[in-house]
Amino acid sequence: MTEPWEDLLPGTRRALFHRIAVAQAEARVPSVVAAVAREGRTVWSGARSGGNGPAPDADTQYRIGSITKTFTAVLVLRLRDEGLIDLSDPLEKHLPGTGVGEVTVAQLLGHSAGLAAESPAPWWERTPAALRPELVDVLGERPVLHPTGRRHHYSNPGFTLLGSLIEAVRGASWEEVLRREVLEPLAMDRTTARPVAPAADGWAVHPWADALLPEPVEDLGLMAPAGQLWSTAADLCRFGGFLVEGDENVLSAASVAELRTPAAAPESGQWDGVYGFGTQVIRQSGRTLVGHTGSLPGFVAGLWVSVEDGVAAAVLANVTSGLAAGSVAAELVGIVADAEPRIPEPWKPLPEVDQDLLALTGPWYWGTQPLVLKLTADGGLELRPLRGGGRGSAFAAAADGGWTGLDGYYAGETLRVVRRPDGAVSHLDLGSFVLTRGPYEPGEAVPGGVDEAGWRGLGE
Question: What DSSP element (H or E) covers 300?
């Protein structure tokens, strides 16, 4: 049973439908389908069609193009989490003989391996996979265009290599591994490598006339991990929920957060954002969105998730160009998040309190800068400036008795409580910085010492 506020208001539903109706009409799209999920539950779906064929709905398949890359990235991180590979491994360690074996798994995931954007001619999206039977046919004679690890350059062959890596380590096809390890556990029954009815036909629309041309549907073969999949708006919203919370049967929340973490700066002019591991990360109207866009001849797609708002939106259309599906999906997220802000979880007191940690909370000083140390609901610590901007981080307990920074300037750094011989707290050591209870508190804890005369006025 749902609470009344869990369903969208009529005005919000109308605004969502109005947005896709405008998109279909202005972009001259044969059909468009969209869905929105909130807190992991699909709360709205809608479709608009020009009347050519059966009316689509959230269960109608469309090709999703490069959104496929996010699924491939999930499979790679599963291999890492199982200890079968390391992201810093050179490709050659697991997939020898490619000729680009010095690039690392992480660089391939973040498009910083320096590989070419496309395979050699003919255009791989509209020609049979039989023309590219081996990896050498996908990579061509000049596969590396930029110094490895130096810049972001989007590469479809790079994700072909990741798919082949998955096959080599698992000993099974990319398609089979994906179905078994991701699609079935997430109950994404309508996401497949080949179309399963009901599925939309792909069309091109003449740029200067309201005329249609059917687009060919090619199996991508080795290029499949870069863009093969067909899916539905409902399935993609389900996947969007996974990108927020993770799923222990597929990938932990911590590993999913790695997917969303920027890995490389974008190529100049490509996106107003950055790239993670198989995900695009953008800023839109003051909020961070994570997901991916996709296109193949006859189809465009977009999936965006706002982790902070708990909202995901998917947009699918059967047109080669003209509709910015990713932009529409981002607007759908904004419509819901702005009209119906997320209701926060109720505050609850801790079930029990560690008195030693409680004694550490409150003001601390780095020199003269005041900071506040707080005990968080998950049993961690949080150190933030008392006012204004500045350095701060959340910390999690480490096995050696210290605390490890989770974000911000002190990510990965160690916070330690330093005690006097009698057991009383002397100061905090944070990556060699000394934090004391008073500003430049006299005593040996402050590096360089403190002037014995202490604080004074200008005339003293």
Answer: strand 299-306
